[in-house]
Design brief:
This protein is mainly alpha-helical and 118 residues long. It contains six helices and no strands. α1 crosses α3 and α4 packs parallel to α6.
Length: 118
Amino acid sequence: MKRFISAMADSRNNLVPAEQILIDNGINESDAPNVLRAIGFALLDEDLYPYDDSDRSELMDEVDYWYNKVAEYDWDLAGKILDSNGANEDESGPDGFLTGVSNESMRKMIVEFQKALN
C-alpha cells in the first residue's frame, strides 16, 4: 500500500486513479480525496494535496488551467463542473468566477476536471 501511495504522490495529476480505487472499494466519491489525504499523512507523513489554504491564487490558477483543458474538448461539461461547485461564470468579484468558492470546492473542481479528461 505504501508503495502505491508513494507512486501516486509523485504528481498531483496521478491522484485521480488512487481516488478511483478508493471509490471502487466503497468510499463515497466526495470523501475519497480526504481519505487519500489521510492515508498520505498516516503512511508517508506528507500531504498528498499540498495546497496552502492561505494561497488562493495557486488554487485559482490550477482551476483555470484544468478548466481550459476540459473546455477545449467539451465547453458545456467544463461549465457544468464550475456550476456544480458553486462557481459563477458571470461573477465580477475580486476572485472573478471563483468569488465565494471555498478552497475545498476548488480542489474538488480540479479533481473533476482531471477525471473528465480520462
